[in-house]
Design a protein that fits this description.
The longest helix is centred in the middle third of the chain and has 7 residues. The chain has a single domain, classed as Beta Barrel (OB fold (Dihydrolipoamide Acetyltransferase, E2P)). The protein has one helix and four strands. This is Molybdopterin-binding protein.
């Protein structure tokens, strides 16, 4: 698989919470950090995602927001 995105982070699925149409998938990456992605239930099924299984978090953003207190 080749992607134009440069931020591809390997990890392990630690939770999948399906809703009516959308699922929240939590992926644990290096250092114990957890990323959460909202994807369709159909995508979860097509990708064969399972808790404990490997997955990549692919991050492609057109905007980066910066904030301070």
């Amino acid at each position: 698989m080749k992607l134009s995105a440069r931020n591809v982070v390997p990890g392990k699925v630690v939770a999948i919470q399906k809703g009516a149409t959308t699922a929240h998938v939590r992926i644990e990456i290096a250092g114990g950090q957890v990323l959460t992605s909202s994807i369709t239930n159909e995508a979860v099924d097509e990708l064969g995602l399972t808790v404990g299984g490997p997955a990549y978090a692919v991050i492609k953003a057109s905007d980066v927001l910066v904030a301070v207190d």
